User: Which sequence fits this backbone?
């Protein structure tokens, strides 16, 4: 359960990371590509994949332990479709990492919330994009409200609501964030990215919603800032040093390491063979895709090293999204 001691423990690990540049801060672990939804902006899921066997996932966690990863985000697809998801959370915890999960919330039940709590889940991010389902997304407040109320009553782990701006009417985003804060949760918004991770254009009203959400009282203080969004929203570009492959990386369902969830196949090294030398190389390499990058986790995990140099020459990043071959880009909300 997320006690005060948990908060101190996690903060201590994050702070100690600042003095330890080759220690991964956040890792995304894909436990299945399968999802029960099919959002119009998502390139990371399908309707058919099998869950990754728990033995493989435990081996991945062991390797993340070897690399001294701090936060492990269990994701997909929809991670609650994985039949042994509670065991996995407990295993992440038992290996000294901080388990976090991203979900669309549809499969949450009171029993599962209690089990995840007991397994040591530290935080849960739920995606809620609109008030009501539309042609792009069914991650909507109205159908999910009973689940959110149940969570507010029974979960002792942190809960955060994430809204993808551009998936529906911009006013919805602010209403969702207000509802989240009223339920005692944190709220944040994400900029929609294309299949290569580049920011998608934002309407003026969506930009205003983004500002209003940032200013909402009652949001958790964020030590990992979201300021990169402002520059991206205004000019489509942002100057920063991406530390993906080092401070942050994704481990796909095949157990391969990718710089982020939008750079599938780069470097594509099995996690079992990923070493501190690979981390050092990634840490010091500037990436050609960083200027327009909207991958929030990459920005947030890179922020503690903003003052450190990047000595290696910029590298052209192979940007093949996982579903490059499977899905065409649908239009987002105007
Ligand atoms: C891919 S989902 C996987 C986990 C889970 N099924 C969920 O809905 O949270 C993780 C997060 O990425 C967001 N996401 C997916 N595709 C995106 C995109 N193209 N741009 C911005 N956010 C995106 C989702 O809305 C969700 O908040």
Assistant:
């Amino acid at each position: 359960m997320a006690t005060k001691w948990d908060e101190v423990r996690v903060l201590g690990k994050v702070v100690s990371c600042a003095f330890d540049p080759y220690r991964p801060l956040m890792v995304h672990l894909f436990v299945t590509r399968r999802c029960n939804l099919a959002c119009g902006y998502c390139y990371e899921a399908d309707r058919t994949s099998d869950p990754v066997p728990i033995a493989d996932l435990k081996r991945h966690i062991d390797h993340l332990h070897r690399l001294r990863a701090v936060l492990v985000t269990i994701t997909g697809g929809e991670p609650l479709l994985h039949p042994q998801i509670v065991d996995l959370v407990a295993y992440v915890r038992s290996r000294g990492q901080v388990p976090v999960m991203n979900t669309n919330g549809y499969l949450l039940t009171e029993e599962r919330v209690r089990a995840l709590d007991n397994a040591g889940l530290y935080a849960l991010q739920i995606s809620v994009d609109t008030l009501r389902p539309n042609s792009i997304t069914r991650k909507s407040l109205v159908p999910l409200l009973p689940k959110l109320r149940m969570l507010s009553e029974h979960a002792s782990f942190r809960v955060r609501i994430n809204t993808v701006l551009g998936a529906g009417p911009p006013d919805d985003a602010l209403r969702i964030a207000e509802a989240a804060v009223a339920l005692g949760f944190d709220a944040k918004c994400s900029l929609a990215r294309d299949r290569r991770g580049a920011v998608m254009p934002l309407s003026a009203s969506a930009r205003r919603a983004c500002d209003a959400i940032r200013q909402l009282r009652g949001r958790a203080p964020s030590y990992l800032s979201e300021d990169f969004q402002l520059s991206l929203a205004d000019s489509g570009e942002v100057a920063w040093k991406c530390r993906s492959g080092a401070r942050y990386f994704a481990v796909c369902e095949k157990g391969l390491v990718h710089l982020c969830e939008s750079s599938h196949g780069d470097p594509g090294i099995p996690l079992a063979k990923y070493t501190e030398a690979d981390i050092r190389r990634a840490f010091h390499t500037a990436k050609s895709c960083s200027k327009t990058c909207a991958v929030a986790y990459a920005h947030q995990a890179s922020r503690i090293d903003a003052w450190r140099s990047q000595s290696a020459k910029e590298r052209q990043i192979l940007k093949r999204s996982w579903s490059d071959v499977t899905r065409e880009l649908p239009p987002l909300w105007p």
